[in-house]
Design goal:
single chain, mainly beta, six-stranded mixed β-sheet, four-stranded antiparallel β-sheet, 10 strands, globular
Length: about 120
């Protein structure tokens, strides 16, 4: 069974950093594109970043320059390092398989940016 479990969210002050993790099971991330998306309160899903099997990365406009996506194939885990967080980054963050909004997204992890 394919499963993705996100973790690492929390409450952080503006300007702070968080590293989100996405632990995968039931498939191997090394042969899959993986994506991060987010959903702010009252809004739709927004693509944040993806990483290809060949390590090529892409970033959405809203967080480009402040986030870095990476993967650890040995741990079957994808990460999203977020720096310079802003209140408007408050959202539930999901990882998924593939590009764009992805598929088989997990339950998400809440990120709240507030002073």
């Amino acid at each position: 069974e394919v499963q993705l479990v996100e973790s690492g969210g929390g409450l952080v002050q503006p300007g702070g950093s968080l590293r989100l993790s996405c632990a995968a099971s039931g498939f191997t991330i090394s042969t899959s594109a993986m994506t991060w998306v987010r959903q702010a309160p009252g809004k739709g899903l927004e693509w944040v970043s993806h990483i290809y099997p060949n390590e090529y990365t892409g970033y959405g406009n809203s967080m480009q320059g402040r986030v870095t996506i990476s993967r650890d194939n040995a741990k079957n885990t994808v990460y999203l390092q977020m720096n310079g967080l802003k209140p408007e980054d408050t959202a539930v963050y999901y990882c998924g398989i593939g590009f764009g909004l992805g598929t088989s997204r997990g339950q998400g992890t809440q990120v709240t940016v507030s002073s």
